Structures are given as structure tokens and as C-alpha cells.
Amino acid sequence: MECSEPLGLVRSDLQTRRSHVLLAASGSVAAIKFENLCRSFSEWAEVRAVTTKSALHFIDTSSLSRDVVLYTDDDEWSTWSKIGDSVLHIELRKWADLMVIAPLSANTLGKIAGGLCDNLLTCIVRAWDYSKPLFVAPAMNTFMWNNPFTERHLSLITELGISLIPPVTKRLACGDYGNGAMAEPSVINATVRLSFPHPFLNVSNPHPPRGGDLPPQ
């Protein structure tokens, strides 16, 4: 479900709500798996989604669960009209307990490593509180993955405290066989959940009462 109204965010005590997970997708063909990723995380968390313009080329937004509110670059501007209004990338940064960028394209990796912030996704990362987890799952052609710039960029973002969910070796969308394919949504979900055990989440009951949600969009 896409955002169509200004964002108002209400924080609540962790004991009364599910984890807040911000899922983001950048422009890689692996974004076709974004709907599955959102569904996996929605089983145990409140999910908000952010996509770049390029990512939308691969995502059928109508297939996203109605529980998942999608924010795009257009919302960054449409939700603000005057001084004093909430700024979307700041409010999403405040709302989230953790962020996952999957897929992370070579282009967005380079932007994050260089501190660039020219869209909603990268503005959130530039404003991110690194005391909170941020995971990335890269997806790119093997030649791009093996490029020396990729190693440099990964080193830089790792120094910030960003956690890498490495790509896998398989037949890529272009037909080549090699490393660079995004990890499967189930692997990303399991990795994040094991690394971020919500202190009040009953694993035997992954659907505790909801609270602290965004007002209806």
C-alpha cells in the first residue's frame, strides 16, 4: 500500500509493540523478491518499505501486503509543505528499530560509501543512528561484485557498523554464472532476526498485540 498522506509517527514503549523494521530496495533485478521479503518480515514485525525510483521498475507495488506502507522519493516532497512539518526521512529514521536494504545495488552502495544522499533511501542512511542495526544484502553482476571499488565501498560501510549479508553464487539474471546474487529473502529474514532478538517478542507467538503503529495512511 503506497503512502498518500503526510506521515505522523507515534513512538511507544517496546513492551507494547512489535519491532519496527524499515525495508528498503534499490535498483537491482533482485528487487523482484522484495514482496516476499516484506511478507517474511511482516510475520514478526511492523514493516515500512522504501524504494528508489529504479527499484520500482522491478516491483509490482500492488502485490505488497496492505499492512506494508510504501514510501518513495515523491513522498519525501509531498509530505512537506512548510517549516515545522515533519521531514519524512528523519521520521522514518526515528520510527525504525532497524533497517534492511535488500537488494543493495552497486550504485547505492557507492552512494552510501561516499556519503551521498540524493533520494529518500540514501537520506535515511545519511541520518541513521548507528546504535541501531542496519543490514545490507548486495545484488549485482559478478564483474561489478569483483570490481576493486566494491571492496573499498564495503570496507567503508562496514567501518560505520553496517552489517553485510553476502551475496551468493548462482545463475544470474543476465545468464552469467557467478557470485553477486542477493541472498534469498528467507535467509535475510533469518539472519536479521537472529541478530536482532526483540527483547519482548515471544518466539512461540510471533504476533503479539500491535501498538505504536503509524496512524492510518
Automatic annotation (TrEMBL):
The keyword Flavoprotein applies. GO terms for cellular component: phosphopantothenoylcysteine decarboxylase complex. It comes from the Eukaryota. Its cofactor is FMN. It is an enzyme of class 4 (lyase). Pathway: Cofactor biosynthesis; coenzyme A biosynthesis; CoA from (R)-pantothenate: step 3/5. Residues 20-185 form the Flavoprotein domain. Keywords: Coenzyme A biosynthesis, Decarboxylase, Flavoprotein, FMN, Growth regulation, Lyase. The keyword rRNA-binding does not apply. Its EC number is 4.1.1.36. Signal peptide: none annotated. Gene3D superfamilies: Flavin prenyltransferase-like (3.40.50.1950). One of its GO terms (molecular function) is phosphopantothenoylcysteine decarboxylase activity. GO terms for biological process: coenzyme A biosynthetic process. Pfam families: Flavoprotein. Belongs to the HFCD (homooligomeric flavin containing Cys decarboxylase) superfamily. This is phosphopantothenoylcysteine decarboxylase.
